[in-house]
Amino acid sequence: MLARVLARLAPAPAALLGPGDDCAVLRPSGELVVTTDTMIEGPDFRAAWHGGFDLGWKLAATNLSDVAAMGARPIGLTLALAVPRDTPVALLEEIASGMNAACCELAPGCGVIGGDLGTAPVLTAAVTALGELAGRPAVTRAGARAGDVVAYAGDLGLAGMGLSLLFAEAADADGTAHARTLPALRAAHPEILAAQLAPAPPIELGAVAAAAGATAMMDVSDSLSIDADRLARASGVRLELDRAWLERGFGLQRGVEVPVPAMLTGGEDHGLLATFPAAVQAAGLPGGFVAIGRVVAATERSEVTLDGAPLQPTGWDPYVVRWPGA
Ligand SMILES: Nc1ncnc2c1ncn2[C@@H]1O[C@H](COP(=O)(O)OP(=O)(O)OP(=O)(O)O)[C@@H](O)[C@H]1O
Ligand SMILES: Cc1ncc(C[n+]2csc(CCOP(=O)(O)O)c2C)c(N)n1
Ligand SMILES: [Mg+2]
Predict the structure, then answer these.
(1) Ligand 1, atom 26: closest residue by C-alpha
(2) Of ligand 1's atoms, which has the minimum distance to the CA of residue 66?
(3) 252-302: per-residue pLDDT in tens?
(4) CB-based pocket (< 6 A), ligand 2
(5) Pocket residues: Cβ below 6 A from ligand 1
(6) Residue 206 — left, alpha, or beta (φ > 0 → left; ψ -120 to 50 → alpha)?
């Protein structure tokens, strides 16, 4: 079984030794960043909506974006996967293929360097991602300074729109997901379903932003309003978002009209929220980044505002949000 899975994986150039031994061996070019994230069938995804390839792609993309958000270049992923006993081996092969494809397309040079296979009552996948900083300091959430510009790169709100659509049109009244309507939904809304099921965040822009002088950065996983609030608190500043800038930059994405509330509350796009000094903006933000607001000194008032009004952090919180059947 493992041999069939490993056959789907291309060697990662940064790995001196890949899957097959007790550990993989890497030679990073500088300081290393490490992150890990778990996806569990039920609270995090529905098998009825995901093919194995999509799931593997999303597992890779959502972890690569965390590496990118530190300003690092991804060099390797590990996958710890536990599945119900009756899972077809083909599904495991598809997951491996999807992870491999996401690495090749979103983070060339990165690959799956190891993992673990086991059984569990529901599909449970934990991915660990490693990245190298190549001599630059990591870009944390804590470096935003008054006077900086707030910028974003990637899809914004599309993945959340995809999730709402799936719960509305591909689930029974009790929340049980089904695939009966999926072909029609995919035909009618290919972009927003792809954004939710197989997101393609701009991974390479993480290192580009760092090189351009980003002062703070994070990937947006829960929602722009929640994650901007986290960045503001970590940096001890206030972020003033501008509705007109959001509309101009993200009102039309991949041919889809995206309302501002969807941009502010949708999760899982895994784009990059970054702050840059005003001088970087004056010279031109790195390609792909769009200015959406300004950093100002903190006050007692709310950490994030939209056109001057406090913005309530709203979006995904696994301990609060309860989709039907989750
Ligand atoms: N069980 C844990 N033990 C130690 N550290 C943890 C644990 N859970 C989370 N953390 C740390 O807390 C911080 C926030 O975790 P979280 O999973 O919210 O990351 P995130 O980047 O905000 O989200 P995402 O992974 O969806 O992008 C991270 O630095 C993470 O390493
Ligand atoms: C069935 C189903 N229910 C809910 C969601 C939404 N969701 C799951 S993980 C996540 C982001 C951050 O996760 P974490 O912070 O745990 O890494 C979000 C918004 C989904 N995609 N599918
Ligand atoms: Mg993150």
Answers:
(1) 221
(2) 27
(3) 999 999 999 999 999 999 999 999 999 999 999 999 999 999 999 998 776
(4) 37, 44-46, 163, 221-222, 267-268, 316, 318, 323, 326
(5) 37, 66, 219, 221
(6) alpha
Index of the ligand 2 atom closest to the CA of residue 323: 3
**Residue 260, number of CB atoms within 10 A of its CB:** 18
Residue 199's alpha-carbon distances to 55, 230, 234, in angstroms, are 10, 22, 27
115 is in an annotated binding site: yes
Indicate the helix (H) or strand (E) that contains 237. Answer: strand 237-241
Alpha carbon separation from 89 to 82, 83, 84 (Å, rounded): 12, 10, 11
pLDDT in tens, 67-85: 999 999 999 999 999 999 9
> What residue ranges define each of the domains in the chain, with the CATH number in brackets?
2-132 (3.30.1330.10), 139-326 (3.90.650.10)
CA distances from 193 to 50, 56, 200, 308 (A): 10, 16, 12, 33
The residue nearest atom 6 of ligand 1, judged by CA position, is: 36
